[in-house]
Amino acid sequence: QVQLVESGGGLVQAGDSLRLSCAASERTFSSYRMAWFRQAPGKEREFVAGINWSSTNTKYLDSTKGRFTISRDNTKNTVYLQMNSLKPEDTAVYYCAADRKTFLSVIKSNPGEYDYWGQGTQVTVSS
After folding, report:
1. Three-state DSSP class for 94?
2. Residue 44 and residue 101: Cα distance in Å, rounded?
3. What is the DSSP letter of 55?
4. How far apart are CA 84 and CA 2, in angstroms?
5. φ and ψ at 79, to 5 degrees?
6. pLDDT per position as a tens digit, 41-59
7. What's the 3-state SS for 31-62?
8. At residue 27, does pLDDT exceed 90?
9. What's the pLDDT at 1?
10. How many angstroms from the chain centroid is the CA of residue 12?
């Protein structure tokens, strides 16, 4: 069972930046697809960004392209989400997720494809 722990959320103003981190408990992390999802109050959980095991493939929600960057450091068992030019509509709880099917390159945006989830970190962007 892989445990995922997110950090880096907070309260910022529109236009500011934040970097979220997600630390995994096991080295098998390096073979997993990883993703960030978010959920705003009253809304469904939505895919934000994903990255394959080798960092050769990424995928983004259209509204975050050019502003958000997902990356990973397999030596540290950590995946990151750099968020720039934040907007009030980015306000949500952000979740890290891992897909335990190993060494796959296609990024899935369906939450049901992911096996392990973190507890979430709140991101609030004020206008």
Report:
1. strand
2. 24
3. S
4. 29
5. -120, 145
6. 999 999 999 999 999 999 9
7. HEEEEEEEECCCCCCEEEEEECCCCCCEEECH
8. no
9. 83
10. 18
The answer to whether 63 and 47 have CB atoms below 8 angstroms apart is: no
Query: Are 11 and 127 a contacting pair, CB within 8 Å?
Result: no
Cβ neighbours of residue 103 under 8 Å, at least 6 residues apart? 31, 53
Q: Which residues of 49-75 are buried (b: 16+ CB within 10 A; e: fewer)?
A: bbbbbeeeebbbbeebeeebbbebebe
- Nearest-angstrom CA–CA distance, 24 and 115: 13
CB 94 within 8 A of CB 37: yes
Q: Which residue is it, tokens 């958000």? A: 68
Using CA atoms, how far residue 56 sits from 67, 72, 105, 113, in Å, is 19, 11, 8, 20
Residue identified by tokens 């892989």 is 2
CB 36 within 8 A of CB 70: yes
Q: Are 52 and 107 in contact (CB under 8 A)?
A: yes
Q: Which residue has the tokens 């960057």?
A: 69
Report the SS3 class of residue 9. coil
